[in-house]
Write a structure and sequence with these properties.
This protein is mainly alpha-helical. It has 2 domains: 36 residues; 35 residues. The chain has 3 helices and no strands.
Length: 73
């Protein structure tokens, strides 16, 4: 009976650890992406310049607002 109990406790601890680890990793990634967005204004300017366009500040702000709106949904 004690071996069955030990195995059950190990399985329960493993499941709790996996679920807890998943939610902690998820929370960490949301925080990381909020603090370090994948694309910022400087990167946007560089991409548009490489495509042969000279972006105005208004265009940059519009694109950043659009990307922020899409990422918040």
């Amino acid at each position: 009976m004690s071996t069955g109990l030990a195995i059950a406790l190990i399985v329960v601890a493993l499941i709790v650890g996996l679920v807890g680890g998943f939610f902690m990793a998820r929370q960490y990634m949301f925080k990381y992406l909020k603090e370090n967005p994948p694309i910022n204004e400087q990167m946007l300017r560089m991409m548009m310049t490489q495509m042969g366009r000279k972006p105005s500040e208004k265009q940059i702000k519009q694109m950043m607002n659009q990307m922020n709106k899409l990422s918040n949904k």
